[in-house]
What we know:
Elements: H1 2-7, E1 10-12, E2 18-20, E3 30-44, E4 47-60, E5 62-74, H2 80-106
Antiparallel strand pairs: 1-2, 3-4, 4-5
Amino acid sequence: MLTQRLRSSAAVHSDGGARLVGVHTPAVYRLRSELLEFEQIFDAPDRSHGVLRLRATLEGEGVWAQRTFAIERLAPTPNAAGGVTALTECSNELARLLEGWVSANHSRSPPSVKRN
Length: 116
């Protein structure tokens, strides 16, 4: 579910990188992600929430930027269906935040690359 949601924001290449779509960039960047947490947590028998944590790395010639995103949403019901709803909301928010983060970072000057 999460992979599909993020792929809708970026065209993924076979090497695991991505050419960012919808962002006007002068070069191709690789977006790497590491899923740290994606689960439904029960606070009480009648209350739960979804938690999503993901570390994203934007690369060009070297690491351009890195950020860990942490998103939590209350589940509307304390069952599997409520967990799916909460995690879907987390995924949608992650896609929105990730797009904004990439857009903000692409306009920065690229990191200097040391060549031997």
